[in-house]
Every structure is written in C-alpha cells, then in structure tokens.
Amino acid sequence: MDWxxxxxxxxxxxxxxxxxxxxxxxxxxxxxxxxxPLLGERGMLPVSRFLRRTPFRRAPSLFQLHYSDRLFAVCAxxxxxxxAALLAGADNVVPLWAxxxxxxxxxxxxxSIVNVGQTWYGFGWESLLLExxxxxxFLGNDEVAPPVLVLFLLRWILFRVEFxxxxxxxxxxxxxxxxxxxxxxxxxxxxxxxxxxxxxxLPKPLHRVEAAANHLTQLVVPFLLFAPQPVATAAAxxxxxxxxxxxxxxxxxxxxxxxxxxxxxxxALPGGRRTAPAAPLWFEVVVLATAALLLFLSxxxxxxxxxxxxxxxxxxxxxxxxxxxxxxxxxxxxRYEVVVEGTLDDVPRADSDWREYxxxxxxxxxRRRPRQFAPYHLRLDWMMWxxxxxxxxxGAWFSALVERLLENDRDTLRLLxxxxxxxDRPPRHIRARLFRYRYTTRREQRETGAWWHxxxxxxxxxxxxxxxxxxxx
Length: 473
What we know:
By secondary structure, the protein is α+β, with helices and mostly antiparallel strands. The chain is built from 18 helices and eight strands.
C-alpha cells in the first residue's frame, strides 16, 4: 500500500529508536542496581509476598511463574544487554521479524518488572516507557519504511502526555490559573537539581512567563502535532525545548527524556529516503490489527481526559498499552523533608550522639549542593519525598527501611550516599524527624555556604530499636 509507509521519516525513526534504547538501558540499569533492597527476597516490599496475593490476570509477569533474586538479576541484566544491542543498531542487521522480536523482548521484560514493582514502580514514566516501547515493536527496520499508523500513534501518545498534564494543572491547583505555581515549584519539587535553586530565585514576572509558556506548550501546541509539515516539526521542536528546560530545572528520572524521544518521530529530519521497498503483507496486517486495538483501548484515557474528575498516571489495562498521564496537578508551597538519624546509645536521649543518614538525591545536609541524577531514577529518594508529604505514603516500606538500617543491611546502605556507622557497629536506635526546608537567599549562602535552611517541625518516628527474634546480641 502506497499510503502505508512514510519513507521520508526514516531518519526520524532511527533517532527515535536509538533514543528509546538508551532510555530502556537506564531503566534496566536502575532495576539491576536497586531491586534487592526494594523488592528482593529480603527487600522492603518483597515480590514473593506480593505474588502470593496477586493473580496473573491483574499483574502479568514472568515472575508469576517463579521468583528469585537470581531470576530478577538475569531479567534486568538481559534487558541491559538487549537495550545496549538496540542502541548499537542490532535491529538493522537482522530480518524484519527478528527486529520486531528484539524490540518485543525488553518490553516484555520491563513489563514483568513493573507489574511486580508495587510502590517503587508506581510512577507515570514506567507506563509511558512501556506504551512507547510496545509501539516501537511495529516501527520496522531498514527493510521497510516507517508505517504511517505507528508514527500517528506515537504522536497520539505525546499528545496525551502533554495535553493530559496541561488539563490536570488547570483543573487542579488554582496557582496554575493564576500563573504563580512556579513561585514554589522549583523549591518544593521531589528532587531538585544543581540549578534548581537558581531557577527558584528568578524574578517572579519571569516565573509567570514560565507558567504561561507551559500552558501554551501543553494545551495548544499538542494539537499542532497532527498538522501538516513544517507545522508538526515546529510543534515537536517547541516541546523538545520545553522538556530540556525541565531537565535543567530538576531531576524527573527519564520522564523528560522519554518525552523528547517521543517528539522525534514528528520531526521532518533531512536525509530521509523518498522511496523504500514495499512492506510485506504479513507486516501490514499485524500493524493494522495493532493500530485498531490501540485506538479501541484509547477510549478510557480520552474519557478520563475529558472528565472533571481526571486522574493522573493511570493504566487501564495490565499490559500498560494505553495509559493516562499528568504531573503536578497541585504544587506544595512548603518543602518538608524526613531526616533519618541513628545512635549507638542503649538508652536514647535528646542529647545522644544522633548521626544523620545521607541520601543520594533528596535534600539532607543543608551545605550539600543538589546533584544531577536524571535520567537515573533514585526510587527510595523519590518515595521519601512522598513520605514527607504524609506518613500514609510511607506505608509498610518505611518501617522495613528502619529495620534494615538497624541491621546495617549492606544492600539497603548501597541506596544511600553515606552511612554514619561502621559496618560492624550498627545503630542501637533509629529515629526520624520532620524538617521544613527552604533555599537560602544569596546573602545567606555567601555567609554560610549552605544551599538550604532547615527548621525542625516535629517528630516523625520516635526512637526505635530491633525487638524480639530480630534483636541483636
């Protein structure tokens, strides 16, 4: 079919595929390095416990057949290897059917991880990676030109990401309508980056321009993705520029990068071929059937977007094929942080030698400058931000974290930047306190060298020690 493919988007497809492979690689690397303390057999939220109460139909996963830490490590390692091979262009040196299988493998492996990841994998960019990764299976390789329907569906994902985020802001916090949310956001976002403090101290009129530009990019520009060229290219380019601005202003794991990757297929990049071999009939049938399925499944996300009770980051099917997205429907005005401390004293007192644990990404020591971690995802640090908003977000995992710290658990300590206790002398007690954090002013930083100023608010967790059968001698 002449209408079936678009050879002129060949270079756009190539850039998209390599970018997606890079995001996959980061996602699998994150899983490989963090799963044991989070989800492993002795993790805070063990996969095995989750599987005992969750049927396959609700959480399709390879691990429903069998779980062990070794199998998880093999899956994450295999995902890293396949992603690296795709990044190097392995899909273009094999037949079309093999290229499709090669792209299907990381999707199936990551789906298996996400569906047992529980709280640690409850972020919108997990579903976004899966939805995008599934479509990549049907994008083809050098044997065929990019299918028009798949290119359209990739723009449809990008439209829902941006337009859904814009709607949730306008329906959520009044500060978005008043253009004042960015007076607070750069200071209260989950994980500030090295430049976030400078963004926060920009003049308020510029913050208002920033918010207005965000509304334009998310509520108007997405419709232009479906316009003829070069309008679609201009729209996608504006979205890319906005996402790179967000990359500079904070750490949002790979959310910004996967959105940049999604915008690439809308670009009319020079160098694309004008002709290409006809697609095999079996490939056309598969693509048409898949497109029909995904358009049918789009009904519920569309209804959600149009609803006054719009929800963010929801999957409507266990395969995460078509999802709804959104971010920062409300913005915190004050930043709270949970500070975890331990002591070697047998009887904890207010004047005991309480030593603070340093996390890798979340604010702790006021004199420590925030670092850039994205696209790498520090899952524990993100959940500590939620825990500071409300103890309800901590659930069962926070008590498990405290227990692991009392044991000086090696895998758990690897999630942290620094443990204040030697390996052979774990703390006798752990406590947690809630502090209010704010950026220092320029004058305060010059005088003290501190990036943050913090004020004690209240006790979050009273001094706690191991008890019963887990008590240390």
